[in-house]
Amino acid sequence: MSTTTSPLAEINVLETLLSSDGFVPSIPNSIEECGIAATTVEGLVMKYLLQFGARSGRNIAQRLCLPFGILESLLDKMKTRRILVHTGHAPLNDYLYALTETGINRAKSAYKSCSYVGPCPVPLEDYINSVEAQSVRAETPRQEDLRRAFADISVEADMMEVLGPAVNSGAGLFLYGAAGNGKTTLARQMTRCFSQDIWIPHVVVEDGQFVKLSDPAYHVEVESEGPQLVRDNDHDTRWIRIRRPLVVVGGELTMIDLEIRHDPTSNICEAPLQMKSNCGCLLIDDFGRQRIQSDELLNRWIVPLEERCDFLTLPTGKKIQVPFDQLIIFSTNLNPSDLADDAFLRRLPYKIEVHDPKPQEFHKLFSAMCRKHGCQYRKEAVDYLMDKHYRPSGRPLRRCHPRDLIIQIRNLCAYHNRPLELQPAYIDRAVKSYFAAFSGT
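Above: the chain's sequence. Below: its structure in token form.
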């Protein structure tokens, strides 16, 4: 299951990188141009047929995400070596292929070595080139891009002026401030500033190890327009086109998530979170509340933040260098200086405090929540809320309060089968139940 790099493959990658339309993985014209050893492809064919029985050549090619034209000759060679046999005809001058007894034995051996069955992998080197060609640092979001990204939330002009340069840096930033003021929401919206979609491989391979990169939890595939046959004929289908990824992790983050995870039973590897977030955003939410020490996490990333590359270890023991190319965001309600030393903080060029909303913005938030829930906004009702339940006790305004209080009032009105309204009596009931366990917050 080794890889091979040919001059043809290198030319193919170079042409892709120099394309005027940006990075689009071009269709390989041969197995050699795939950058993968023929024995690796044979192993995938045998394991697929072992699992699913006789299949047509085009079906096999579709499963392996390879052009049928370059796979057909390989299938013929496997038939000549009596690994495969024809069991019938298939449409479009194709055949049904099945394993011989020799093929079954070889397939079982290959499956025992590695149970991966799916799209043919892409060499690690090609993946590295793709990240360089699609770097998040090459994006330059403008004011209109930020306005579009934050159109459905309330962001003050002063905050927008600070966020704009931070997003353009493509480096890293701290978002800090009191809980409930929308730090996580801000961080999530930032990915929308980046306009271009990117291409990632389903799987990469290095030193015979299959590392799964594509993850539906973080990667949203962008469907191309036109019939399926047209879509599959305009790019190498070992790659998928996705929106720039947003990977969000919170208190559940551990050091294991930052390394290649290897399943010893299947012998299949899973890419770490920072690799899945390349060319996008990585949000460390509730930083400082992970199950690992904050300094341990920060020390793990000091070199990647400085050098823009990371070093990972394969199950074989081989060290590989991969890009560390994302806008990394640390969101916390703790003081950054209490979590990190100067050596780390200087590697995150932007530290942005998210302040409590001012009364005017608090009104705007209530108005937006009223529209969302079909309730008439009444300015005097919000003034009543602040005059009675905030100012006398010194309770700070929080951006989450309008949403949460409207939901409380909605539930109250639904229970009593009454129309949703901003009435003082409803506000008093909502405040009593919402703030009772959080006196002084």
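The longest helix spans residues 400-415.
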